[in-house]
What we know:
Layout: H1 9-26, H2 31-38, H3 42-49, H4 57-67, H5 71-74
Amino acid sequence: MTGMAKLTSKQKKEIGWRIKEIRELDLEMTQTQFAEKLGTTQATISRIEKGRALPSLEVLLKTAMISRKSTDWILNRNVKGSD
């Protein structure tokens, strides 16, 4: 995930919003349930969703896998031929 440290605050918040959308709308899970599924803590999920922290590679990949969303979508990267 080269370049993740260079993200703006707005970009970090967008990633957090997308992860929250997956958790609430797609998976219908609480932060605690989602954290347990991903092998992390509720506090970590809260920080990610608020844009205060970025997901680790492990959390990003597990989120993509269980939600069937692409990592590019979660990271809000515009990839030719994708939404």
